[in-house]
Amino acid sequence: MVGLLRFPDLRDLGSLSGVEWETLRSLNRACVDLQQEWEAARVQTGRAMARMEVTEGYTEHSRFRYHAAAMDAAYDPAAQYERRISEITWRYASASMLLGITVLDRLVSGRPPLNPSVVKQLASPFRRAGCVRPATPRNSSTAKSSANCCWRP
């Protein structure tokens, strides 16, 4: 569970650059808070759905369906908020994972720290899906065009 993770002390991170560490830490806190917000939204949506179903059951054959209409009206914004917060949570979690895996690969391979602009691009929660590709030599004849890609090492 993401909420139970504790980010390690800076002294334990070895050759992690300050920019990498601060970015990973910030993304970690964002993910923890967003996960808690998403859980709260799921509870609210579930409660609204249960009330709507109960109300639908006893007002099914009634001419007076104001209660059912009210519960339906309360459910819609709750469901929309749950969907929206889940999308936001996913974006930040994927940015955190992408940066974390890239930094781990860099550490294991013994490469120098990522420059701040690369860290910023990797940490962006607003990347298009599928825009990150494996690194290929820039002058390779088999390298794909990166015109539609927002980051490529």
List keywords for this structure.
61% helix; mainly alpha; 3 helices; 153 residues
Summarize the amount of helix as a percent range. Answer: 55-70%
Rg result: 22 Å
The major β-sheet equals: none
Write down the overall geometry.
rod-shaped
- Our count of helices gives 3
Distance between the termini: 31 Å
Structural account:
Helix content is about 60%, strand content about 0%. The protein is built from 3 helices and no strands. The chain has helices at about 20-60, 65-110, 115-125. α1 packs antiparallel against α2 (about 65-110) and α1 runs parallel beside α3. The two termini are about 30 Å apart. Mean pLDDT is about 80; it is low at about 135-153.
Give a nutshell description of this structure.
The chain is mainly α and 153 residues long. It contains three helices and no strands.
Produce the secondary structure layout.
Blueprint: H1 18-59, H2 66-109, H3 116-123
